[in-house]
UniProtKB/TrEMBL annotation, chain B:
GO terms for cellular component: cytosol. Signal peptide: none annotated. This is Putative 1,2-phenylacetyl-CoA epoxidase, subunit A. It comes from the Bacteria. One of its GO terms (biological process) is phenylacetate catabolic process. GO terms for molecular function: phenylacetyl-CoA 1,2-epoxidase activity. It comes from Streptomyces aurantiacus JA 4570.
Length: 263, 333
């Protein structure tokens, strides 16, 4: 491990609206990109891991754990490109994490978890799908991960349909979940330095797919803004929501209690 | 099983067939079991054999899903990403084992919903070992090494159980359990060789889990209520005390390799018997936990019920959607 205990270089917040910002690829930009995507996967994996033993049906214990494991695998590869995976996961403070605020949102009920999965898996599938076709050093990882993520997306879409078009109660819960998380979806399309992607096109593809699934599920596409009062992209700059600190406290406590120990 | 294939015996055989026919079926069944043939779901079988198997498979399935709780307790605090991945995979395997075993029970006409109701209402049990708490990270290792180790000792003979679907499910379960046991051992080894605090954590966990693990083999042979018939039916192949002795003999050298001690001053090699002697088990504690007075009985069943109740609307939605979908398909057909 070389530099992970030091907070990573700040992500350049410039030009959030151009949709095409793409700093030259090089170690700092590559690290920033790997950290952003790695933190997304790490944090969402952790949240899904909280479902273990609490899922509504045994098949979902298996499915949610499977998705969590895929994401954790992605996180470990990505973080290892930046430094020591454990130092990065366990010894950074909240403000040094670069994940989207969406993935850190608490699980809520099953519908809210599915809404979070829908928004994120459609995004991650597009992102990895496009990234796999570039000459980025992350392309091989993306090509492998996109196969896993296609399953995650299918899982989320199938449940969105079941809940949306199931009973009156499930319909209402699913709509509430979609509405509650909508304001965290805008930040997904803020360009991540080091990733040479057409973010505007990705946003359009994401919106088209999510709209199609939501409407097929007899639900309504949320109408509110896609970002909160803070500029979209806050998570990528290390600004998180309150519950994230407690999530990290739980995640990091044991590791931090035994400095220098190996496990 | 090579003998006459009968329709699944939902109808009571003793009224459908005459007494003479029943006797013939029964002796064919007994002969098949004696010849180590497998009984399959559509074969004729005595009602008591069927109900014994359903009870045992259900209890086993319940143990897998309740057993997820003490380990899931540490998923969010696992101290390295590698350990976290291993633990998540292990807890996921347990859910998978629950699925195979409920499915195996369904081959005998039981339904998963009904079996879950029996678990939730306390009419069916799960392994008492899961009524102990996981207080430190080392408990994850102790569960893997000792609890999964004891489970494997119990379960390997079940791969040769006379009932085919159970035996086949157990082959897969045992393969995964042996990976679980190795990860537990390896986790404890890392702690034992780690800092003094880590070593102490490992020793404390082994001290707490050793005796409850020995109790997992059930009461002494003289007091075991289901053993004899199950042995005749080849559902069970070895007695509780035989398996317990086998487990102790396996663990002693492993504890030495781990650099940890087992909390039993009477534990020593008996040259004459070719086995380790060990101290008296506190059966009062065993019966007390079994009756519901363990440290976590209340907590485990409450969490299980809550997950089930809070998930009811999800299952209802899935069922409603499936119905709508099939109606739509019929309408367009």
């Amino acid at each position: 491990m070389t530099s992970a205990a030091v907070p990573p270089a700040p992500v350049t917040p410039a030009s959030p609206d151009t949709g095409t910002a793409s700093p030259t690829a090089g170690p700092p930009a590559l690290h920033a990109a790997a950290l952003a995507l790695g933190d997304d996967a790490l944090v969402l994996s952790h949240r899904l891991g909280e479902w273990a033993g609490h899922a509504p049906v045994l098949e979902e214990e298996v499915a949610l754990a499977n998705i969590a494991l895929d994401l954790l695998g992605q996180a470990r590869v990505l973080l290892s490109l930046v430094g020591d995976e454990d130092e990065l996961a366990y010894l950074r403070e909240e403000r040094a994490f670069r994940n989207l605020q969406l993935v850190e949102q608490p699980n809520g009920d099953f519908a809210r978890t599915i809404a979070r999965q829908l928004y994120f898996s459609v995004y991650q599938n597009l992102l990895y799908g496009h990234l796999a076709t570039t000459d980025s050093p992350l392309a091989p990882l993306a090509a492998k991960a996109v196969k896993e993520v296609a399953y995650h997306q299918d899982h989320a879409e199938q449940w969105t349909l079941r809940l949306g078009d199931g009973t009156a109660e499930s319909h209402e819960r699913m709509q509430r979940g979609l509405d509650a998380l909508w304001r965290f979806t805008g930040e997904m399309f803020q360009p991540v330095p080091g990733l040479d992607l057409d973010w505007q096109a990705m946003r359009e593809q994401w919106t088209a797919r999510v709209t199609e699934v939501i409407e097929k599920a007899t639900l309504g596409v949320p109408e509110g803004p896609q970002s909160g009062a803070w500029a979209a992209g806050a998570g990528r700059e290390g600004l998180h929501t309150e519950s994230f600190g407690r999530m990290l406290a739980e995640m990091q406590h044991l590791h931090r209690s035994h400095p220098g120990a190996s496990w | 099983m090579a003998t006459a294939h009968q329709p699944p015996s939902t109808a009571p055989h003793h009224t459908a067939a005459g007494a003479a026919d029943t006797a013939a079926l029964e002796s064919a069944f007994d002969a098949a079991v004696a010849a180590d043939e497998r009984i399959e779901p559509r074969d004729w079988m005595p009602d008591a054999y069927r109900s014994t198997l359903v009870r045992q498979m259900a209890q086993h399935a319940h143990s897998e899903i309740i057993g997820m709780q003490p380990e899931a307790n540490w998923i969010t605090r696992a101290p390295s990403l590698r350990r976290k991945a291993i633990l998540m995979a292990k807890v996921q395997d347990e859910a998978g084992h629950g699925l195979y075993l409920y499915s195996a029970a369904e081959t005998l006409g039981a339904s998963r919903d009904d079996l879950l109701d029996k678990l939730h209402s306390g009419r069916q049990k799960y392994s008492s070992i899961f009524n102990y708490p996981t207080l430190t990270w080392a408990d994850v290792g102790a569960i893997g090494w000792l609890v999964d180790g004891a489970a494997i000792t119990n379960q390997v003979p079940l791969c040769r159980c006379s009932y085919g679907p159970y035996a086949r499910a157990m082959v897969r379960v045992c393969k995964e359990e042996s990976f679980h046991q190795r990860q537990g051992y390896e986790l404890l080894l890392a702690l034992s060789r780690g800092t003094p605090a880590q070593h102490a954590m490992a020793q404390d966990a082994v001290d707490r889990w050793w005796w409850p693990s020995l109790m997992m083999f059930g009461p002494p042979d003289a007091e075991s209520s289901h053993s004899e018939q199950s042995m005749t039916w080849k559902i069970k192949r070895h007695s509780n005390d035989e398996l317990r002795q086998r487990f102790v003999d396996i663990c002693v050298p492993q504890a030495e390799s781990l650099g940890l001690t087992l909390p039993d001053p009477d534990l020593r090699w008996n040259e004459e018997r070719g086995h380790h002697d060990f101290g008296a088990i506190d059966w009062t504690e065993f019966w007390s936990v079994l009756k519901g007075n363990g440290p976590c009985n209340e907590q485990r069943i409450t969490q299980r019920r809550r997950a089930h109740e809070e998930g009811a609307w999800v299952r209802e939605a899935a069922a409603a959607y499936a119905t709508k979908n099939s109606e739509r398909k019929e309408a367009t057909a």
